[in-house]
């Protein structure tokens, strides 16, 4: 599926001039709305780009009547969009965002209500959801409103979580007779520790954005109407670095969650050594010594 960048529209010079004359809250709503016409090939998401250099991809979950419940087709569209953004060399970071009311209120219960064990096994149910966590470029979850069940798991698949002040996180699967199935019992303890994760998973309780930040689940909390704007700023900052070196950094940090300390330190050292074979490492250090901005080529 071809990706249609909005380089000629979002934050182009005429548009940027217009944005100076409106409030920041209006900026966010404007950014979110202008991309709608560019997503004709998607039913459940919107795909746009943002930032002064159009180097941040924005995937907006778009099932408002269902509070962005994560149906199978929506997650397939997210996967397809990530494929497009990953192949686009002009994109350095990705944002996944929902609405002000809900990032994603959970998986689509009606869709999976009549699933059977054999169907789940033979169909490898939920396997394609892992595409988000395997994305090679950094992914930012911008969470307003509810991020429950699969919505919380989707946010945790991302590399960084920014939350609006109204965000609510939780794994309420136990309340409907099942358990988290897309990483909730595995990623949550790694974010907040065993005791807190047990409390959340075993009670189905929801936690606020402020509580989530204190636990380490969320990196920063922003006003609701500034969440997208701040997420784009973060994406632009990440995208300004070498995509090659960013990929190595992401791999190294993720390894810390999946291996022993000794193995992680060994990999980190080797990846650090490998940067000395890149043009971007040489350019970065040379630019630092010469007191100028580096010009990375991702080589």
Automatic annotation (TrEMBL):
A single Gene Ontology MF term assigned here is:
enoyl-CoA hydratase activity
Domain of life (superkingdom): Eukaryota
What Enzyme Commission number(s) does the record list for this chain? 4.2.1.17
Keywords attached to this Swiss-Prot or TrEMBL record, sorted alphabetically, are:
Fatty acid metabolism, Lipid metabolism, Lyase
Note whether Lyase occurs among the keywords: yes
Please verify whether the record's keywords include Lipid metabolism. Answer: yes
Transmembrane ranges, per UniProt, are none
Q: Return the GO cellular component terms, semicolon-separated.
A: mitochondrion
InterPro entries from the xrefs?
A: ClpP/crotonase-like_dom_sf, Enoyl-CoA_hyd/isom_CS, Enoyl-CoA_hydra/iso, Enoyl-CoA_hydra_C
* Pfam family, any one: ECH_1
- Give the GO terms filed under biological process for this record: fatty acid beta-oxidation
Give the family, as the similarity comment puts it: Belongs to the enoyl-CoA hydratase/isomerase family.
Q: What is this protein called?
A: Probable enoyl-CoA hydratase, mitochondrial
Organism encoding this protein: Dendroctonus ponderosae (Mountain pine beetle)
């Amino acid at each position: 599926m071809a990706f249609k960048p909005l380089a000629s529209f979002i934050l182009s010079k005429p548009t940027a001039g217009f944005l100076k004359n409106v409030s920041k809250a209006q900026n966010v709503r404007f950014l979110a709305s202008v991309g709608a016409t560019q997503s004709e090939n998607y039913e459940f998401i919107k795909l746009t780009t943002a930032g002064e250099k159009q180097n941040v991809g924005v995937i907006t979950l778009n099932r408002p009547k269902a509070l962005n419940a994560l149906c199978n087709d929506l997650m397939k569209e997210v996967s397809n969009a990530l494929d497009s953004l990953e192949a686009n060399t002009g994109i350095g970071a990705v944002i996944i965002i929902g609405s002000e009311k809900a990032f994603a209120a959970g998986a689509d219960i009606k869709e999976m209500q009549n699933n059977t064990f054999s169907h789940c096994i033979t169909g490898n149910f939920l396997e394609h959801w892992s595409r988000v966590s395997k994305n090679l470029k950094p992914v930012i979850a911008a969470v307003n409103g509810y991020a429950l069940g699969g919505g919380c798991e989707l946010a945790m698949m991302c590399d960084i979580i920014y939350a609006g002040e109204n965000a609510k996180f939780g794994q309420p699967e136990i309340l409907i007779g099942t358990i988290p199935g897309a990483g909730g019992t595995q990623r949550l303890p790694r974010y907040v520790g065993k005791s807190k994760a047990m409390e959340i998973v075993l009670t189905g309780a929801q936690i606020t954005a402020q509580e989530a930040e204190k636990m380490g689940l969320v990196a920063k909390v922003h006003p609701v109407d500034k969440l997208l704007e701040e997420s784009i700023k973060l994406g632009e900052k990440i995208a300004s670095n070498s995509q090659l070196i960013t990929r190595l950094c992401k791999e190294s940090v993720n390894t810390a969650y999946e291996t022993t300390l000794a193995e992680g330190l060994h990999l980190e050292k080797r990846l650090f050594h490998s940067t000395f074979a890149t043009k971007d490492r040489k350019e970065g250090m040379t630019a630092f010594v010469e007191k100028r901005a580096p010009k990375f080529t991702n080589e």
